[in-house]
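User: Working on a comparison across species. This one is Bax inhibitor-1/YccA family protein from Pendulispora brunnea. Can you predict its structure so I can line it up against the others?
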Amino acid sequence: MNQYSRSYGAAQVRSAESVASYLRRVYLLFTGGVFFAIAGALAALYLGEPAVIRAGRGVTLEVPPLVAFGMQHWLMMIVIYLGAFFAASALRWRPGINVAALFGYTTITGVFLAPTLFFAQLMASQGATLDASPVRDAFLLTGLAFTGLSGYVLVTRKNFSFMGAALNMGLWVIIGASFLGIFLHSAVFHLAIASVGVLLFSGYILYDTSRLLHDRSQNDAVGAALGLFLNVVNLFLFLLRILSSSRER
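Assistant: Here's the predicted structure for Bax inhibitor-1/YccA family protein from Pendulispora brunnea:
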């Protein structure tokens, strides 16, 4: 019996060490992905000679070349973005190339989001947004929220797996409401969607972090990092939508 107890205890230690190693790998990949996304966005926003584009009603704007390309070829950018995402998902089990695919996708994500960031800050510079610096503040709030929510799960070791069904249902509600918002030009409606989106992806951070901690069958570090990255990007975008909403005059 004593020998069995010692063997069981050793197995538990090995299991705990395995989980800790897995968590370190996931968070290192996730952090790397975030840095590559930031690098992609900065490259799109600051590299190259500005291009002049027409913004309507005789108004012209000087925008970075990659931002101009994204605006003028938005359909191509969507195809490239989705292609990079599906490639990263499909290759996540292939050692070596999976990490390159992950970082390639996150870099493309930064480039893909650059036009949104550019115009959010442009509107803020004209005093037309709720927050004076929506991009910076959305980024900081996202970082604080992710750190706080993930840290809470890792410290308390609570299991949030029960949230899965509700979160998936909420995701479909958000998708449907966003599609409806295309036809309903209501600032209040869009603000409500963004507020629910913030709560939804905060819940996904709790849920996915809990799965990393409690689901011992998981061995897909790249896929887990990709999931966390998507949660953070969506949380950031919904916060940005709230902070860059029109200021009432």
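For your comparison, note: The first strand starts at residue 51 and ends at 56.

User: Helpful, thanks.
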